Every structure is written in C-alpha cells, then in structure tokens.
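Much of what follows relies on a compact textual record of a protein's fold. The record below shows the convention in full:
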Amino acid sequence: MELKSTDDGMTKFKNVPFCALVKDDKDLAALRRDYASTDARERRMAADWEYHSQMASEIFNDSMALAGKEGLGKSFWPSGVVALAIDPMYAPAILTVGSIEYQLGRVEEAMKLFMTLTTLPKDEEDLSTIIDKAGDFLIDQGNYENALAYVSSSVRLRRISLSKAAQGFTPRRTFGTSQAYCSQAAGAKPAENAAQRKKGHLWMETS
C-alpha cells in the first residue's frame, strides 16, 4: 500500500504511531535523545513549555481566524507530540497523544499510552484529573471494556481512589459498567459481575 505524502506532521502521524515516530523521525528522535541526558526537572520544564505554548498558539490562531485575520502559522506536529518526545512521562502530552491515536483508529497504541498514566508517580501534578479525563474519553467513545480495565488499573496501583473511580462511572450510559466495576473491586466472582452487568443493562432499558 502506498503511503500518503508526508509533508506535514499530521500526515506523518496518520501513517505512523507515535512510538515509531519518536524513533524514526530524525527531529523527534534527536529531541528524545538530547533531553534524555538532561536533568529531570529541566526536561519537565521544557516539555511543559512546549505543550502549553503550542496550545496557546492554537487558541490564538483560532481567534484570529474567527476575526478573518492571519495567525501565527500552524505547528508542524499535532498537539502534544513534541512535548512527549521531550519527556515521555509528561502526563498532559500522554493524554493528548493517546486521544489522537485513538481517533486515528489505533486503539491499542492509545491504551498503551493511557495505561502509562496509571504507572506515574502519585505526586505527579494533576495526575488524578488527567487519569479521569482519559477514562471519560474512553467512556465517551463507548469503549466501556477498556475504560473498566483502565480505571481498575488506576485503582489497583492507587493512582485514584475507589470512591473517585465509582463517581466516574455514574452516568446512566455506564451504569452497568459501574455495577460490574464496584463488584469486581469488592472481590465478586465473574459470574456475579455478569449478573450485575445484566442488572445495569435492564435498568437502562427500563429507565
């Protein structure tokens, strides 16, 4: 199959997942290599600056476009890609790049990134909020199975509390998943979980 032209970062990213891009693209590979040898604090600051400056540029460009004026120019890479190349443990970029991977149909790559969030240190800034956002994203996509596995991993590794996880599964569309999750967390057997899921589905159908 012939690949599409790769004259911009988004096209490259559509063709190749991030895990391969960061090794094969010379610019991203150079960033990963150069920052790997720097102090962790400096690396984090660089990733944070890149991430938020790109976000700010995109917001500015959108505002200028609405006003019918020219902006600052579009970034070569999609949001989060450069920041994640700089610091592979930078949570906001993991969430952003993982979400794009999912939207491009690479669910397995997205889940690998999302699961990385559950292994980050507990004192990572805004970690519980970012983990919540990833879970909400999976629920919004209707991927309840992966959402359940993801949040279960977060609770097991104590990145979020059981009560917080249960709150994340309270909407009606995920009632069955919430019932199964809470039963699993309480030590219920698979057959009991199945009964809880069935009960949840019946609740949705009759509500």
